[in-house]
Amino acid sequence: MDTVGLDDSCLGYEVILSEGDRSTPRCPHGPTLLFEKVRKRGEGGRRFYACSACRDRKDCNFFQWEDEKVSEARELARQANNKRQRAPFSQQQYSARLHELIKSGNADGAAEPMKSLLLDIDFRYAQFYGQDEFCHYNMFNHHFFDGEASSAAVRAFLRESDGEKAVTVADPPFGGLVKPLAGSFSRISQTWRNQQSADGSYVDMPLIWIFPYFMEPRILACFPSLTMLDYQVDYDNHSLYKHGKTGRKQSPVRLFTNISPAEIVLPEEEGYRFCAICERYVGRLNEHCAECDVCPSKDGRQWKHCALCGRCVKPSWRHCQSCGRCALPDHPCDQSPGAEGCFNCASLAHKRKACPLKHISRSASKKGRGARTRQLAKLSARSGRIKKTK
Question: Which of 113, 188, 280, 297 has the fewest CB atoms within 10 Å around its CB?
Answer without folding.
Answer: 113
